[in-house]
Design brief:
Layout: H1 45-70, H2 81-88, H3 92-104, E1 108-110, E2 116-118, H4 123-147, H5 150-164, H6 175-193, H7 199-225, H8 227-245, H9 249-279
Antiparallel strand pairs: 1-2
């Protein structure tokens, strides 16, 4: 891998450039049946059915995964096939495949005869994944500051700008605003570590980020309704971007570590508050 220049000209985090254009999608392939071949032209039909089943399985997987991470399926909830089939309008086969994939990602738990359930939340699990997330993300950030070039810088600026312009939720059932803020927030944090040079490191960081999002959604509304907390979070994001663009690796890494530790503290307090409220 070829290194970028040690210290490219610094770019301001306050004035992002125009976001790069989205590449055009390739035209979808079309399966044609040759009428001149008579019945032989129907040989493609089993492939079409298999493709349709695969598409349904992918769709069920994507929708289930989104609902699990977003908390629209309550952690610890049983996941019976019949109810899921009615909810997602797919058959048992695609659902089983989707649930097995989600179990491998620890978003779903399988308990023998009792079937599948949405993985529960726990403070032990939260602390475990946050500790590992801090270690891996800080390493990825340091490597990105070493290797990142102009494209990396551009993406940091664009993602920071778009995150700061994201509408904040006003109620806890404003899923559209919460989902959009989460997408933009995740894009910014991904941009910081994107130039680390390790596909495996990025994969593990993304997995831990998705797992933490199941917990963080407890605090998004709280942040949106607290101007002081929102200002703190926004200042932290800007500080990390500035330090990364200035190639101040030690400072950027310490900021990211403090940012994640603060998120852990806020989420823990919110979960403990909810638990205590249920007991009273």
């Amino acid at each position: 891998m070829q290194k970028a220049s040690p210290k490219p000209a610094r770019r301001s985090a306050g004035a992002p450039e125009t976001e790069p254009a989205t590449p055009r999608r390739k035209a979808a392939s079309v399966v044609k049946l040759d009428a001149a071949k008579g019945a032989g032209g129907l040989d493609a039909m089993p492939e079409l059915k298999e493709a349709d089943a695969k598409t349904m399985g992918e769709g069920a997987y994507a929708r289930l995964r989104s609902d699990l991470i977003a908390g629209r399926i309550v952690p610890g909830t049983r996941l019976p096939f019949r109810q899921l089939s009615d909810r997602y309008k797919v058959g048992i086969g695609p659902l089983r495949e989707a649930l097995m994939r989600l179990a491998s990602e620890r978003l779903v738990a399988f308990e023998g005869q009792r079937g599948f359930m949405a993985s529960p939340l726990s403070l032990d699990d939260l602390n475990d994944l946050c500790s590992l997330r801090i270690d891996l993300s800080c390493r990825a950030l340091r490597d990105s500051i070493t290797w990142g070039g102009e494209d990396w810088e551009d993406e940091i600026l664009v993602s920071l700008h778009r995150m700061e312009r994201s509408p904040l939720p006003k109620t806890d059932d404003d899923d559209a605003s919460i989902d959009e803020w989460e997408r933009r927030h995740d894009r910014f944090h991904t941009s910081l570590i994107a130039a680390c040079g390790s596909g495996w490191l990025l994969h593990f960081c993304a997995t831990l980020s998705d797992q933490f999002q199941r917990y963080r959604r407890f605090t998004v509304l709280r942040m949106a309704q607290s101007y002081s907390l929102f200002d703190v979070v926004r200042s932290q994001h800007r500080g990390m971007a500035e330090a990364a663009l200035d190639r101040r690796a030690d400072e950027a890494v310490e900021m990211l570590k403090a940012h994640y530790e603060g998120s852990l503290k806020n989420v823990t307090e919110q979960i403990e508050h909810l638990v205590n409220r249920k007991r009273t």
